[in-house]
Each structure stands twice: as structure tokens, then as C-alpha cells.
């Protein structure tokens, strides 16, 4: 195995560049190094001006998402040896405005996320002394998969619908809404219905499935969206047949 590998990194300096350009760097090719380690080597030893996001280095925080050889990946969980002999092309996540180099503006996602109320909603909160809201293993299993989302936004980068129409609420936000809709402790499904069943919600999804393929945590946002389509259609039919009934 070679001692080094070439990283072709997208560079963009606001106010100086009109579009990103690729810059090549030679970094050590070590078996245990992830792409993020290679970028850190560049930052520490070759070019201190390189900008990128990272935090936990353990695939938990979701902040180090990038496009690696055309695919959205967590750079802390994508290893250099998987791309040997190289080169490896590293670009910012697609479908987001680039702030600088590999750093993208996530404001659109952050604006959309609270619209689906990704938290437990209850009409009445029982006093603490009455105990916890207990769940059975079956009730936990119903939503647990969707609770694994780490807000890395790889699914948005992979989504062809979001690429064409950024009014689309998006796969992660919808999956997180389903995480709470399916939680036995939650009473906020009706409050989320208007956003999720709007033209910018689930009905924009054409079920390409790229979001689920890109998800590093197996959340399956495409599955969450299709499941909620059935719920929304059922609610609509109930509304026609039984106008006074909302559940």
C-alpha cells in the first residue's frame, strides 16, 4: 500500500472566488485514518486556511457531513483506505449554499425543523409524583428507528426533490416528526398534520429512496414518509366521511 494519498479538496473563499475550485494535497495513507483525519492533517500541517466542520469524531454529532467522491458521507466514518489508491475528491454537501470551502449554510434546515415540532407534545402534563410515562418494548420499537437521526443532513444532500424544490420540508424533518407521531407519550400528531400533509410536505416526495441510502444511521426517512402518506390519506378520508372526527 502506498504511503500517501491525494485529497482533491473543494476550496471557496467568499469575496474572492466565483465558484469552488479543487486543490490537491498529499496526506499520509494510514489504515486507521478517516477522511476527517486527512483534512485535519491538511489543516494542521499543510494549509491552515482550510475550513470544515467537525466535533465528536464518532459519527454522533452529524456535523462533519461532506461529499466524498460524489456521495454524501460522514467524513469521520469514511476511511481513506476505502478509496486507495485515490485521488479522493472532497466537496461540501450538495443542495446547500457554500459559506467557505467545505462549510455549508444549514439555515434552511434549521428553519424547517421546528415547523414539525420534533418534541413531545402533551395536552396535560401529569404531576411528577405520579411517576414516569412508561412504555412497552413494542411501543419503543415502533418509533426507535426514526429516533436515530443525528441531523447530519446527508439525506437533504442526496434528495433529488430538495435539489429542485427547496420548499420541500425534507426527509430528516419528516422522519423526526414521525418519531414523535409514533411515540405513545405524544399527543401532537394533529398539530403536525398541516405541515406534513401540505404540498411541501410528504406529497412532494417521489420515493426515489436516495435519502435512506445516504443515511449513516439506518433511519430510513423514505420509509417514514411513505408510512405517513398512508396516515394522511386515512385522515383525509375520515374527514370526508366523518367531518366531525379528526382521529
TrEMBL record:
<dbReference type="GO" id="GO:0009055">
    <property type="term" value="F:electron transfer activity"/>
</dbReference>
<dbReference type="GO" id="GO:0046872">
    <property type="term" value="F:metal ion binding"/>
</dbReference>
<dbReference type="GO" id="GO:0006099">
    <property type="term" value="P:tricarboxylic acid cycle"/>
</dbReference>
<dbReference type="GO" id="GO:0051537">
    <property type="term" value="F:2 iron, 2 sulfur cluster binding"/>
</dbReference>
<dbReference type="InterPro" id="IPR017900">
    <property type="entry name" value="4Fe4S_Fe_S_CS"/>
</dbReference>
<keyword id="KW-0003">3Fe-4S</keyword>
<protein>
    <recommendedName>
        <fullName>Fumarate reductase iron-sulfur subunit</fullName>
        <ecNumber>1.3.5.1</ecNumber>
    </recommendedName>
</protein>
<dbReference type="GO" id="GO:0051539">
    <property type="term" value="F:4 iron, 4 sulfur cluster binding"/>
</dbReference>
<dbReference type="InterPro" id="IPR001041">
    <property type="entry name" value="2Fe-2S_ferredoxin-type"/>
</dbReference>
<dbReference type="GO" id="GO:0022904">
    <property type="term" value="P:respiratory electron transport chain"/>
</dbReference>
<feature type="domain" description="4Fe-4S ferredoxin-type">
    <location>
        <begin position="140"/>
        <end position="169"/>
    </location>
</feature>
<comment type="pathway">
    <text>Carbohydrate metabolism; tricarboxylic acid cycle.</text>
</comment>
<dbReference type="InterPro" id="IPR025192">
    <property type="entry name" value="Succ_DH/fum_Rdtase_N"/>
</dbReference>
<keyword id="KW-0479">Metal-binding</keyword>
<keyword id="KW-0408">Iron</keyword>
<dbReference type="InterPro" id="IPR050573">
    <property type="entry name" value="SDH/FRD_Iron-Sulfur"/>
</dbReference>
<feature type="domain" description="2Fe-2S ferredoxin-type">
    <location>
        <begin position="3"/>
        <end position="96"/>
    </location>
</feature>
<keyword id="KW-0004">4Fe-4S</keyword>
<dbReference type="GO" id="GO:0008177">
    <property type="term" value="F:succinate dehydrogenase (quinone) activity"/>
</dbReference>
<dbReference type="InterPro" id="IPR009051">
    <property type="entry name" value="Helical_ferredxn"/>
</dbReference>
<dbReference type="InterPro" id="IPR036010">
    <property type="entry name" value="2Fe-2S_ferredoxin-like_sf"/>
</dbReference>
<dbReference type="InterPro" id="IPR006058">
    <property type="entry name" value="2Fe2S_fd_BS"/>
</dbReference>
<keyword id="KW-0411">Iron-sulfur</keyword>
<keyword id="KW-0001">2Fe-2S</keyword>
<dbReference type="Pfam" id="PF13085">
    <property type="entry name" value="Fer2_3"/>
</dbReference>
<dbReference type="InterPro" id="IPR017896">
    <property type="entry name" value="4Fe4S_Fe-S-bd"/>
</dbReference>
<keyword id="KW-0816">Tricarboxylic acid cycle</keyword>
<dbReference type="Pfam" id="PF13183">
    <property type="entry name" value="Fer4_8"/>
</dbReference>
<keyword id="KW-0560">Oxidoreductase</keyword>
<comment type="similarity">
    <text>Belongs to the succinate dehydrogenase/fumarate reductase iron-sulfur protein family.</text>
</comment>
<dbReference type="InterPro" id="IPR012675">
    <property type="entry name" value="Beta-grasp_dom_sf"/>
</dbReference>
<dbReference type="InterPro" id="IPR004489">
    <property type="entry name" value="Succ_DH/fum_Rdtase_Fe-S"/>
</dbReference>
<dbReference type="GO" id="GO:0051538">
    <property type="term" value="F:3 iron, 4 sulfur cluster binding"/>
</dbReference>
Amino acid at each position: 500500500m502506498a504511503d500517501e494519498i491525494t485529497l482533491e479538496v473543494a476550496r471557496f473563499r467568499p469575496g474572492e472566488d466565483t465558484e469552488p475550485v479543487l486543490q490537491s494535497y498529499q496526506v499520509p495513507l494510514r489504515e486507521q485514518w478517516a477522511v476527517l483525519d486527512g483534512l485535519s492533517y491538511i489543516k494542521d500541517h499543510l494549509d491552515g486556511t482550510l475550513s470544515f466542520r467537525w466535533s465528536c469524531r464518532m459519527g454522533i454529532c452529524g456535523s462533519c457531513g461532506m461529499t466524498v467522491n460524489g456521495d454524501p458521507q460522514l467524513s469521520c466514518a469514511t476511511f481513506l483506505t476505502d478509496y486507495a489508491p485515490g485521488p479522493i475528491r472532497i466537496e461540501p454537501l450538495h443542495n446547500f449554499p457554500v459559506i467557505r470551502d467545505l462549510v455549508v449554510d444549514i439555515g434552511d434546515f434549521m428553519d424547517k425543523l421546528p415547523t414539525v415540532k420534533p418534541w413531545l407534545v402533551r395536552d396535560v402534563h401529569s404531576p411528577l409524583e405520579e411517576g414516569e410515562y412508561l412504555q412497552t418494548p413494542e411501543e419503543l420499537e415502533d418509533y426507535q428507528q426514526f429516533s436515530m437521526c443525528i441531523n447530519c443532513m446527508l439525506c437533504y444532500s442526496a434528495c433529488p426533490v430538495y435539489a429542485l424544490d427547496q420548499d420541500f420540508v425534507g426527509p430528516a424533518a419528516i422522519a423526526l416528526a414521525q418519531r414523535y407521531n409514533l411515540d405513545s407519550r405524544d399527543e401532537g400528531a394533529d398539530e403536525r398534520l398541516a405541515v406534513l400533509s401540505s404540498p411541501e410536505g410528504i406529497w412532494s416526495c417521489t420515493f426515489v429512496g436516495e435519502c435512506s441510502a445516504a443515511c449513516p444511521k439506518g433511519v430510513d426517512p423514505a420509509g417514514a414518509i411513505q408510512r405517513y402518506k398512508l396516515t394522511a390519506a386515512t385522515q383525509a378520508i375520515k374527514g370526508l366521511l366523518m367531518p366531525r372526527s379528526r382521529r
